[in-house]
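Example with several molecule types.
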Amino acid sequence: MFQRELIGPHYTSNAFEESVRNPSVNSSKCSPAIELVGVSYGYAKKDLPVINDITFSIPQGQWVALVGANGCGKSTLVKLMNALLPKGEGTIKVKGLELQSDTIGEIRKTIGMVFQNPDNQFIGATVEDDIVFGLEGQCLSIEVMEERVKSYAAKLGIADLLDKHPSELSGGQKQRVAIASILSMEPEVVIFDEASSMLDEKTRNDLLNILSDMHKSGRYTIISITHDAQEIAASERVLVLQEGKLIADRTPTELFQDEKILEMSHVIAPFAFQLTTELHKYGLDISIPNCEKELTEALWPLHLRK
Amino acid sequence: MSEKLLIGRTIDTGSWVHRIDPRAKMVAMMLYVVIIILSNTWLEMACVAGFSFAIIALTRIHIKYFIRAAKPLWVLMLFIFIVQCIKVDDKNGAILLSIGSWNLYVEGFKLGLFSVLRMVFLVSFTAILTFTTTPGRLNQGLEGVLKPLKAIRVSPDRFTLMVSIALRFIPSILEEAQIILKAQASRGADVRELPWKEKGKMLVSLLVPVTVGAFRRAEDLVHSMESRGFRMGEPRTKYHRLVWRSRDTIFIGFFIVMLIAMVWMSGYGTGELWTL
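Resulting structure tokens for the full complex:
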């Protein structure tokens, strides 16, 4: 589905409706993609731990939003999963494989990461070079690399930018290149570390559509660190961190209804949600909408009732 | 800043020289250095000039770019010229100019002129390498040329990775420096309006944020590389492979013929009248 939807100029359209029509996505949620048991981590021994005894597991194909105030340890936590930081206490398992010094290579093949700054994760001198950087490390043959560059560039809509230098690209385009570079390595888990925070509103929506399409394809387990209410609303599950501790693990709807947790995680509920909560106070019985369009649909029949 | 920076910039005209294997170009440039060193007479210099202009014409890049490439070195050239003029103290030679007890000899003047000419040719001509080759290909060529170093356990991959990352980030870091300069100017500390001494002080205050920024970038980059499975010394396949074609041999052939001609000319001391 990912392939079909992303090829062509209209890949971003009707992503939401598609998921409504086809609810049987991500059926293979059997063994966990990521499993953390009692994970703690501190940068220096004397300091307070940045990550404090965290345990959770993420089934395959799930889209998880990781939220929390700045400096609460979100980035540290995902970097631990990919062994970008030295091992702390506890165990981390990725696809059943425990993270140890001899399994780092294998685990990094399974997890792909897209970072915040689109400029600093651009390794190659051109878009094409950047995409093949990871593929060269996987020792793929030239034919396979060419095929992957072609197909993933087309999927992310950057096929005509392949010979461009990063300085010739916009932030959104660079972020697409970063995603293409990661997806071309065909990982099973993709982590977005505040990947949308340096983008403008429109590009952010584009990124959200890419994430939705990835999710619907069922091929990827997605963890996205974000402050963006829309992105949180689109995910299936929200993990809330505060001062290195996991304080909440719930669905986006449950999170948006809990003002206390919202405040602790520095998240603002989407407009449609806020409005619905206000309307509930006035005794209007409207179901919690997923998007503004849904809210409009729920509101206009009320006019007729009068 | 980057507008004036010609070093390392590719000017694409799609010429025959642009398509030459970067390894061939590098070897050719080394041969050119030898050719330049061997040219000791006006005739030889004229031959070198003719040869250089012919190759430059082949690149289809406007000559002004080559002249501009040598321009930043004018101070050094002037210095060399003056030193050569002062140094030659030929008691029997013809005097060109006398200032008090000091004489400028024709010989010294010629030597100075010759050194400057050599330098102009060397710098302008070798700019062909960067003008006609993209940094990426240049780097691949470098890896090829450095391959023999493997014998003494120096890894060319490591070196070329370093070069490619440097090439990739130099423009970004320059851009960041510009932004910091502008930020300082917007707070009333415009570097352009300051006297030279103050300018120096300002540049130090520029150095700190730029260095910190570079380290931050480096950390991000390392994370990005590692998360894409990069490990130093691990085997990798190559996406871009250089293929040696007959045109590459022909290109080097030009330089070899020129070199042989130079050796022959200097060996026979052609045209006594032409010598210095």
